[in-house]
Design brief:
mainly beta; 190 residues; SH3 type barrels; single chain
């Protein structure tokens, strides 16, 4: 596996540790007035899903994992297995549900990126687009004038996810949703 220095850190970089493969979520190079420089980072385990904070000495070398991202179309899920089709080769692949990130925001026939370990050709995890467009299938009716208070209500989306939305949202509305945290962004005109 290739070695990488802490000076080459960037978000999304994947590192090999004895217990798991981790991806860097965020990092900060720190140069204190006294003592050596270091890198404070937040990393997330690929298979265990744990997010931990870790500090590395400046110039420390680590083993990186070479990953490849390929666009796939989400087809369906069958219990614990989600099926995707490569958009160029039409090859279908089944992925264990533990490797699927935020499945409650995946809609059939939508594009998802599968992230592979390039050395072992195994799927590490899935990446959704930053924003997804989903239809509201169930919510309490909205009323005129409900925009001033900033109050929210719950809405069930076509994928089964339940999110908080402004009071003026109605059943049948199409919403732009932040896939990373499941928050409402805006109503989309059809």
């Amino acid at each position: 596996m290739p070695k990488i220095s802490t000076s080459d850190f960037k978000n999304g970089l994947t590192l090999q540790f004895p217990d798991d493969i981790y991806t860097i979520i965020e990092f900060l190079h720190v140069k204190p007035g006294k003592g050596g420089a270091f890198v404070r980072s937040k990393i997330k385990g690929i298979t265990n899903g744990k997010t931990i904070e870790r500090t590395f000495r400046a110039g420390e070398t680590l083993e990186s994992v070479r990953v490849e991202r390929h666009p796939h179309t989400y087809l369906y899920n069958d219990g614990d297995v989600y099926y995707f089709m490569h958009q160029e080769t039409y090859e279908q692949i089944g992925v264990n549900s533990k490797a699927v990130d935020r499945p409650e925001f995946m809609k059939e026939s939508e594009q998802v990126y599968l992230v592979f370990n390039a050395d072992t050709e195994t799927v590490l995890f899935t990446e959704l687009p930053d924003h997804v467009i989903l239809e509201v299938v169930d919510t309490e009716p909205g009323f005129k004038g409900d925009t001033a208070t900033g109050a929210v209500k719950q809405a069930k989306l076509e994928t089964g996810a339940v999110i908080n939305v402004p009071l003026f949202i109605n059943t049948g509305d199409r919403l732009k949703v932040d896939a990373a945290n499941g928050s409402y962004i805006e109503r989309v005109k059809s």
